[in-house]
Amino acid sequence: MALVIPVKEKKLMDVKLGELPSWILMRDFTPNGILGTFQRGYHRYYSEYINVKKGSISGISMVLAAYVLFSYCLSYKELKHERLRKYH
Known about the structure:
Its main location: mitochondrion. The chain is an all-alpha fold.
């Protein structure tokens, strides 16, 4: 007998493509819900990559890569303007 899990309780990776719109609509988009999502993500990241017995550079390198990508996205408009300027 297969155990049927409600769509609301499934993880994103377990949701089928047809169930995705209803799964998204069941998420909590209140400020407290969004804050809780970020807190769970931070604690999961911290426990998996930072607070370990044998640490490596992977945890810090992911933070640095995210920072570089975020700062590039913020300054893209200025970089695009500089790229199109003619130097002559």
